[in-house]
Amino acid sequence: MRVLLTCFANDTHFHGLVPLAWALRAAGHEVRVASQPALSDTITQAGLTAVPVGRDTAFLELMGEIGADVQKYSTGIDLGVRAELTSWEYLLGMHTTLVPTFYSLVNDEPFVDGLVALTRAWRPDLILWEHFSFAGALAARATGTPHARVLWGSDLIVRFRRDFLAERANRPAEHREDPMAEWLGWAAERLGSTFDEELVTGQWTIDPLPRSMRLPTGTTTVPMRYVPYNGRAVVPAWVRQRARRPRICLTLGVSARQTLGDGVSLAEVLAALGDVDAEIVATLDASQRKLLGPVPDNVRLVDFVPLHALMPTCSAIVHHGGAGTWLTAAVHGVPQIVLGDLWDNLLRARQTQAAGAGLFIHPSEVTAAGLGEGVRRVLTDPSIRAAAQRVRDEMNAEPTPGEVVTVLERLAASGGRGRGGGNHAG
């Protein structure tokens, strides 16, 4: 069959699609990946066929300009802790803010129209779309193509959508605003179709998270074992050598820059970790390293190292909570110290600690001494490693991408029939 994958032009969001795309190709299916032109090199570097559609949206510049209102709805998602996250005011505010300032911008008319034109010309049997890339659902609806979302993290979009609709039903008829339905409904009508919740949820949802950490959303789920993909990867010689003492990875993503939390410098953190009997592998770019000055003897500074190659050699990881980093560590059974406070990073941090598989330190509470003590704890507490290995075993029990392909073949052949809320399609 022909399978069209789509993702707006962001490398890390695209990476979650790659192992499934490989599996589809290995099973003999024809696969193309459609995105804005900026993603074409990243797609082809993964060995996949790129189809540029639409125009570039300068995603990183956009995220730097969206302002405090959007940051309010993308920072610190703390489900089960903050009751206001289920209030009508919060849920309406989230939809009212994110639809015009993010969702509709990365799924603008040129992207949607280009994807629809490609779908009509190429006539795929199935569309798989990264879960922020609603253009995939619109193209599927306009052409009658079966379609599924592919998650790379917690399904907050549909979780908040479910809560939003429940609260909306309790509002007076004249106060039942629905920015998501208005935007997607207008886009669907322009293409000759109509809106329903399938444009938000997909007909099925492919989910790589451990089953115990998936959010209840009522969607039809196709579970899939997580297979790490970090882009171009070359394994350095030192990674291939057995570490002489425990190895700790410190990786903080692009958002940490020079400080953690309320101004704790990376230099202070590395100094505190200098007293830990371990090799600290810190992934920092050249600008960060230049400002550090001398570092302890047990610290190895690197620009980049393929995380999937590094994790099997590590005894623990300290990181910002990003989904790809978390999943790569989790699928290798590595205890984690998570400092997350962005979108679902905070949720994952709390879930990790609740599972006993690591520690959560809120960025606002990070201290150099506290981080050093946390590292010592995960190195010496056998219960944390045992819990991390239980999470690994849970993930490895899920169907591989190759096994998921057979499920997708069956679902695509059904033409979208046989769906049901909350079911596991596998």
Mean pLDDT across the residues is 89
Give unreliable regions as ranges.
Answer: 254-259
Oligomer: single chain
- Name the overall outline: globular
Please report the first level of CATH classification, the CATH class of the largest domain. Answer: Alpha Beta
> How many domains make up the 3D coordinates?
2
CATH homologous superfamily annotation of the largest domain = Glycogen Phosphorylase B
Helix content range of the residues, please? 40-55%
Number of helices: 20
Distance N to C terminus: 19 Å
Question: Any idea of the CATH topology of the largest domain?
Answer: Rossmann fold
Strand order of the largest sheet: 3-2-1-4-5-6-7
Radius of gyration: 22 Å
| Percent of residues in beta strands | 5-15%
Number of strands: 15
Taking the sheet with the most strands, its summary is: 7 strands, parallel
Domain Erythromycin biosynthesis protein CIII-like N-terminal: 22-253
Pfam families: EryCIII-like_C (PF06722), EryCIII-like_N (PF21036)
Domain Erythromycin biosynthesis protein CIII-like C-terminal: 268-411
GO molecular function: hexosyltransferase activity; UDP-glycosyltransferase activity
